[in-house]
Hints:
By secondary structure, the chain is an alpha+beta fold. Helices cover about 40% and strands about 20% of the residues. The chain folds into two domains: about 5-120 and about 215-260, Periplasmic binding protein-like II (D-Maltodextrin-Binding Protein, domain 2, 3-Layer(aba) Sandwich), CATH 3.40.190.10; about 120-205, Periplasmic binding protein-like II (D-Maltodextrin-Binding Protein, domain 2). The protein has helices at about 5-15, 20-30, 60-75, 85-95, 105-110, 155-160, 175-180, 190-200, 230-240, 245-250; strands at about 40, 50, 60, 75-80, 100-105, 110-115, 120-125, 145-150, 165-170, 185-190, 205, 215-220, 255-260.
Amino acid sequence: MRTSLARAALLAAAIISPVSAPARADGEAKLLAPSGTLRVGIYPGSPTSMVTDAAGKPHGLAYDLGGELAKQLGVPIDYVKFQRVADIVAAIHDGQVDFTVTNATPARANDVSFTQPVLSIELGFLVPMNSPIGKVEDIDKPGVKIGVTKGSTSERTLPAKFKNATIVPAENVKVAIAMFGSSEIDLYATNKPTLFEMSDQMPGSKILDGNWGLEHLAIAIPKGRDAALPLLNSFAAEEQSSGALETIQQQAGLRGAAKAH
C-alpha cells in the first residue's frame, strides 16, 4: 500500500517538528492548491495529458497524476481543459492552473517550475498512407510540409534541423489530422505517444523509424511555489517505484516512452 503524502507529512512532523501533522499537511495543500482545489491543466489527444478509452473514461499522465496528488493532499480537483500544451504553460505562469505534466524545456522553465523528470519519450514523425517519405532522410526537401503543433517544442526546434522543408503550425492534433486530408501537410512531428494516437485514426499511416530527440516530461507548477518541489519529487518517485506510473501509461495507451533520465 502506498504511503500517502499526508502520512509522510505526519511522520516527518512527529520526528523533526512540534507542529501538528494536520497543520503540516494543510500547509502542503495550501502551497500546491492555494484556492482549495487542485487545478490540473490538460489537453485532449495525447496520452501524456488526457485521452479517453472506448468506454469514454479519461486517462493520461497529467490527468491521472493530478488526480492522485489531489487525493493524497485531501483536496478536490478541477480539470481545466485547453487546446494545446502551450496554453497550459501560459495559464500556470499566470497562476490560473496549479499542476500539469509536460516537456521540461529550458524555455518553459523561464515561465514555470519543474520537478525532476518523471518520464522520457521519443520524438518522431508520422506520414500518411502511400507517402513517398519512407525515412528521415527524405524529409528535408523543397515543397515538403512538416506539420507541428502551434507553440510546441517542435515548432521552435525543427526549423534549425530542416532548412529546405516548410514548417506548418496546426492549432491542435485534431486539426492536424484534417490537414493531412486536405494536403496542407505531408507529415507531422511531435512526441511518439501523440503520433501513435494519431495513427490509430489514420489507417495506413506510419511512424518513421528512429527519433529526432527525447522529451523529458516533468511536473510543472507556478513559479514561487518551489518549496513544494521536494514534496513533488518524492511523490513522483513513489509513483514510479510502486508501479503506479506504469499502470497509468498502460491505461492511457502511452507508447514510445523511455525511462526518465
